[in-house]
Design brief:
The protein contains 10 helices and 12 strands. It is an alpha+beta fold. The protein folds into 2 domains: 115 residues, PAS domain (Beta-Lactamase, 2-Layer Sandwich); 174 residues, Alpha-Beta Plaits (2-Layer Sandwich), CATH 3.30.70.270. Helix 7 crosses helix 8. The longest helix has 18 residues.
Length: 300
């Protein structure tokens, strides 16, 4: 009869699991935690989750590690907690997760630490699976893994057709990384590529399941929001802006963060692909001129 150890059982779980001692040092990190966060067991064990590791933020972009961390609060009062947060992935982007925390006691009832279980809530999992199917048709950007310009144009052509024949509207976001040339000049093109990947993945985590993101060229991206109204357009755009502002890479020079400028527009009855993209592009430049790291929107 074979015996399965506790570690092997935890490694077989789909959810991430990690344990911290009373000093908030990570002493256990399961295989799913590696997969969801990108941090290996060796990288995580012995560190603090506040040491530029997970750095949870809430839906408003507030960092929780130093003030309202569910795990720290559970260590303090022993009460279990649940929260929906965005963790920091090793590649820099944010991943939406549901976290549950519980205190851990020894056989004498003494508090010895706390455990956090977290589940990936990202609709980008489905998006990435869909992109895998498209790879054979050359619709995927080789660097970032999201749709390429050809895929973006194909999607927009379909949405414009639906607009003209069935009156189904769509929203469109045009995004540009702020001061990207400075990133390349200061840190090199390899780091610039890493920033592009980070931004692309952060955009993907902010989307609804029906939305599409494509790299339009260089540091530019487009996002198509089928059936969106003004409220959806504003909410998705602001969530993207916030998540990218709160994403970061660790480099030899320290923490590297970037921001994006966004132009957001709703479709108009007489739109073509180029008229919609051109309008969103002009709105994006309004964001640049207004100081960057912001959303400029109209309602079609």
């Amino acid at each position: 009869m074979h015996t399965v150890t506790g570690d092997k059982l935890l490694d077989s779980l789909f959810d991430g699991v990690y344990f911290v001692n009373t000093e908030r040092r990570i002493t256990y990190w399961n295989a799913a935690a590696e997969r969801i966060t990108g941090y290996s067991r060796a990288q995580a064990t012995g560190s603090s989750c506040a040491d530029n590791l997970l750095r949870h933020v809430d839906g408003s972009g507030c960092e929780l590690c130093d003030t309202r961390c569910p795990l720290t609060d559970t260590l303090r009062d022993g009460k279990p907690r649940e929260a929906a947060v965005y963790l920091h992935h090793r590649l820099g982007h944010r991943v939406p997760v549901s976290v549950r925390t519980s205190s851990v006691h020894d056989e004498h009832g003494e508090l010895v630490g706390a455990v956090e279980i977290f589940s990936d809530n990202s609709s980008s999992l489905q998006i990435l699976m869909e992109y895998e199917k498209l790879k054979q048709e050359a619709f995927v950007d080789a660097l970032t893994g999201i749709g390429n310009r050809r895929y973006g144009e194909m999607t927009l052509t379909t949405r414009v057709y639906e607009l003209h024949t069935h009156g189904i509207p769509f929203g469109l976001l045009f995004l540009d990384i702020d001061r990207f040339k400075e990133v390349n000049d200061r840190h090199g093109h390899k780091t610039g590529d890493d920033v592009l990947v980070m931004v692309a993945k952060s955009i993907a985590t902010a989307l609804r399941k029906i939305d599409v993101v494509a790299r339009w060229g260089g540091e530019e991206f487009v996002v198509v929001l089928p059936g969106a109204n003004g409220a959806v357009l504003a909410a998705v755009a602001e969530r993207m802006r916030m998540l990218i502002e709160k994403s970061f890479l660790m480099t030899g020079a320290g923490r590297l963060q970037v921001t994006i400028s966004i132009g957001a527009t709703l479709s108009r009855p007489d739109d073509t692909v180029m008229s919609a993209v051109g309008r969103a592009d002009r709105l994006m430049y309004q964001s640049k001129q207004a100081g960057r790291n912001r959303v400029s929107a109209d309602e079609g």
